[in-house]
């Protein structure tokens, strides 16, 4: 089934940023040079999550939408801010990609093509779906594997790259995420949330690369402490009452 749009669909590219001055100039340049596939138009929104470097100045100079959070609230709040903006401004789709350069803008087309073919509400760009791509450290891959297994146990669906922040949201996912996007461990938790809400989740292979600058917010991913906290968050999302 192919859902190639017959009318122009407005897509908001959401770029959550915390101190991403090193990678952001090149990323924004690549995005602005991107030619949207037929039937789509792109706008770009940098969510400046309380950065203390030149992130805000770089985004302002690039002429993109910039939403400044007053303090550093974390990746979940930054993404939710972008989804709320997309909802209030009537975008058809939103695509989240990291501000550190891990997600090549040219791979956006893979997400859109998969969405056209499946009509999934949430499409996850995956580095573990059969292509030769950057895959992070062995310890981090082991942690991702465990969280993927836990998500399958809770949702009956296997998502291989459960921590990927390269994602497409349709209108239903934008609406839900604008209200209820998880704030602490948003990628794994949101899989549980969207699944429990009856939204279809898909995963498509994309190329990724190492971050081009800055520091990861998950610096201790391999620790048992981190996995224990994410486990509890996912279990709570699986049992809590939905809005």
UniProtKB/TrEMBL annotation:
Pfam families: Glycos_transf_2 (PF00535). SUPFAM superfamilies: Nucleotide-diphospho-sugar transferases. InterPro entries: Glyco_trans_2-like, Glycosyltransferase_2, Nucleotide-diphossugar_trans. Residues 13-172 form the Glycosyltransferase 2-like domain. This is Glycosyltransferase 2-like domain-containing protein. It comes from Mucilaginibacter yixingensis.
